[in-house]
Amino acid sequence: MTEIPEHLLKRSRERKAAGGDASSSEAAASTPATTAAAPVAKVVAETPAKAAVSKPDPAYIKAAKTRGRIPSWAMATLALMPIFLFMYVRGLQPQKAEASGPVAIGIANYGACASCHGADGAGGAGRVLKGGEVLKTFPHIEDMLNWVYNGTEAFEAAGVASYGDPNREGGAHYPRSYNGSAMPAQGAKNGGAMTEAQILGLVCHIRYDISGADAAGEWAAEYEKWCAPTSAIFAGLEGGTMTFDSPELKIGTAPRLGTTAGAEIMAAG
After folding, report:
1. Cβ neighbours of residue 147 under 8 Å, at least 6 residues apart?
2. Are 156 and 175 in contact (CB under 8 A)?
3. Residue 194, phi then psi, degrees to nearest 5
4. Burial code of 77-93, b = ≥16 C-beta within 10 A, e = fewer?
5. 87-109 mean pLDDT
6. What pLDDT, on a 0 to 100 scale, did the predictor assign at position 250?
7. Considering only CA atoms, which of 32, 238, 209 is closest in space to residue 106?
8. Closest CA to 124 of 181, 194, 185, 208
9. Exposure winner among 101, 154, 218, 260, fewest CB in 10 A?
10. How far apart are CA 102 and CA 120, in angstroms?
11. How confident is the model at residue 54 (pLDDT cuts 50, 70, 90)?
C-alpha cells in the first residue's frame, strides 16, 4: 500500500476546507433574506383590520327593512276591492221594477212639465205636484186628464171658472190662480203636441210616481183601470179604438167643471 505524502494530505484538507466555506457562502448568498421579514409579515397578516365605523339607521329605515313584504296576489286583490264593494252594496239595495205601460210613457214625456213644475214636482212657475197635492186637486183621474188636455186658455175661453175638485181643501183652483201663469194645453185640438195615450201616461206618472198615490192600496182600482201595463183603456187610446170623447171614459176634450171627491163622475156634455 502506497502512502500518500503528508504535504499532499495537507493540501487536500486545505482544499476541502476552502471548498466547504465557499459552499456555505454560496448557500447563504442564494437563500432569500426573508427569515427576518417573515415574522413581521405574519404579524401584519394576523392583525385584524379595524372595522369601519358606521352610523345606526334611522327608525323609519329600520322599520322599512324589517317590515314584511306584501305578496303580489294581495296587491291584485286590493286593487279589485272597490269593485267588490260596489257590487256588494248594489246587491243589498232593493231593485226598483222597471216602468212599463202608461207610466213608462209618462216618464219619457215629463220633460215637457219639468220646466214649470220641477224635475221632482216641487213646483216653480207651475204648481207643486208632489206630496199628494195632485190627488187633493183631482180625486178623479178623469178631471185631471181633461185639465191637462185643455189647459188654461181653453178653460177661460169656455167660461169654466175652476178645475178639479171645487170643494178642494184650501179652496178650488182657478185657471190663473197660481202666479198668474197659464197651464199649456197638451191635447192636439188645442195646439198641444201629445197624443191622448201620451197624456194618460203623463198623468199616471205624475199621480203614482210624483204625487205618491199607492197603486197597491187606496188607489189600486184606479191604477188597474187606467195606469197598469195591462190597462185596456191605455191600449184602446194607443190603438185608436178609444178617445177622450168616448162616452164610457167620461173625460171629454171640451173644458168642464171638475167633480168633488164624493160625487159620481160627470157624464161628458
Report:
1. 138, 155, 163, 164, 183, 258
2. yes
3. -100, 145
4. eeeeeeeeeeeeeeeee
5. 77
6. 95
7. 209
8. 181
9. 218
10. 18
11. confident
**Averaged pLDDT, 6-22:** 69
**Tens-digit pLDDT profile for residues 193-237:** 999 999 999 999 999 999 999 999 999 999 999 999 999 999 999
Cα 99 to Cα 34: distance, rounded to the nearest angstrom: 108
Q: What is the pTM of this model?
A: 0.65
Domain ranges of the chain: 101-239
Residue 239 CB: number of other CB atoms within 10 A? 9
Class of domain 101-239: mainly alpha
At position 168, the amino acid (one-letter code) is: R
| 133 or 24: which leads in pLDDT | 133
What is the amino acid identity at position 181? S
Count CB-CB contacts under 10 A for residue 132: 13
Place of cell 502506497: 2
pLDDT averaged over every residue in the chain: 83
d(CA 115, CA 121): 10
Q: Report in angstroms the alpha-carbon separations of 238 from 53, 142, 198, 269.
A: 94, 17, 8, 24
Instruction: Say what angle helices 232-239 and 196-205 make with each other, to 10 degrees.
Output: 150
Identify the three-state secondary structure at position 163: strand
Residue pLDDT, tens place only, 130-166: 999 999 999 999 999 999 999 999 999 999 999 999 9
Residue 28 has pLDDT above 90, yes or no: no
The conformation of residue 96, written as its DSSP 8-state character, comes to P
Count the helices and strands in the chain (H runs, E runs): 11, 0
Helix 141-158 crosses helix 196-205 at what angle (to 10 degrees)? 120
What's the Cα-to-Cα distance from 158 to each of 163, 185, 196, rounded to whole Å?
12, 14, 21
